[in-house]
């Protein structure tokens, strides 16, 4: 009896708390207690004429009745769905994308996606799938993106049809980065690259095990593989979240279509050349909160569309000559919380910023030497240019870069009327003019 009273009291307290929140949730609740409450917690939004239904992280174990049927994008990431039964989504006829990542899905019936004739994107990564067949994909003739990585795939005869489908050359974005977990001899191999003939032929499997050359192949999953370490999201833009993953280097295999990449709060010390050369769509790169000390001059090669670069909270002291030359469309550059040293090496950065007035930057403050500590770096450079006697300039020339070019930073003050010049011209020692 006492227990019952306790429960009743608890219910009342919860009810009162919910009631205080008021609004739509309460009205829906009064009709039906448990199920509709979830429905009301989901959010419908309209973006560019397309309807998104956001039910992420709602502890859902199933798709609920009563959701709007005319939606284009259904976001169900980070729930607890385990099984997808036939016709689960068949009333969402306009659906273009379906995000089911980070659930606990271990079974998908062949008719689960029936009716999704317009679906182009299906996200099933970070689940518990061991088997699936090509049959489940047949109702979706428009499917272009299918993510299957970070599932414990069992690469045997049952997976044969799916593997062959993934390997069709035109299916470029289907099943990339998915890897076998079992059997042991295939563990770590990519479904995309597996020899499909082996799956259903025990004879050849045995040979593969005995063949010493093949034995080295099933490399354990590379530790720095981005898709297994980070979370990928497709909407509203392809985005990869690698925050706080203890990364010491930029991970390999970043999917080529990623637009926003968050690598903040790791322990990356240096950027090597061409780290991002394949991620050509990248618009935002966040490297804040790492231990960056050096950036190769070719580290940002290929990032033609990068608009925002966050390098704040690192250990940067200066930029090597040329580091920023590839970033044609940069708009924002965050540089705060770095121990910038105000000596001649910092001039390149100021020179570049001067010639890219569209770029807004923050946090460029001297930390050394002591006499300039706390100064905006621009002020230091101005002072330098104003005070520097001729002999100091000539006698104290900074390091030239590998091409043997003399830094042109000082000419920046002079050039202004003439308009920008190529940075790598051979204008040796033209820097003598003083104001
Ligand atoms: C980069 O990441 C840090 C820490 O996670 C965050 O505070 C900052 O706002 C991010 N910068 C951008 C430009 O998104
Ligand atoms: C700087 O980065 C460290 C390590 O990632 C983090 O713990 C700290 O909170 C960051 N500081 C700021 C001001 O963001």
From TrEMBL:
UniProt cross-references to SMART domains, sorted A to Z: LRR_TYP, LRRCT
Keyword Repeat attached: yes
Signal peptide residue numbers: 1-19
Pfam family membership, one: LRR_8
Swiss-Prot/TrEMBL keywords: Leucine-rich repeat, Repeat, Signal
Annotated ranges, domain LRRCT: 151-201, 338-389
Coiled coil: none
Cross-referenced InterPro entries: Cys-rich_flank_reg_C, Leu-rich_rpt, Leu-rich_rpt_typical-subtyp, LRR_dom_sf, LRR_TM_domain-containing
UniProt-recorded name of the protein: Leucine-rich repeat-containing 17
